[in-house]
Amino acid sequence: xxxxxxxxxxxxxxxxxxxxxxxxxxxxxxxTGFGVLAFLAPVxxxxxxxxxxxxxxxxxxxxxxxxxxxxxxxxSMILS
Length: 80
Description:
By secondary structure, this protein is an alpha+beta fold. Helix content is 16%, strand content 60%.
């Protein structure tokens, strides 16, 4: 089960930084029982400054912010 989550990691009077992460949770069955594996991977970083938002991937390349908001609905609440 993989999903995208957004969370604000920094905020001050001038800017905020939001990270979008891929969360992958896997349930495994072993001979000795069950296991849960969880993986977090950064997908994008969103910078909010002076009423303007910009998004970048892990290589600092620009990302379509509207497309990111479509994939992560909670991001629209953080951006407003």
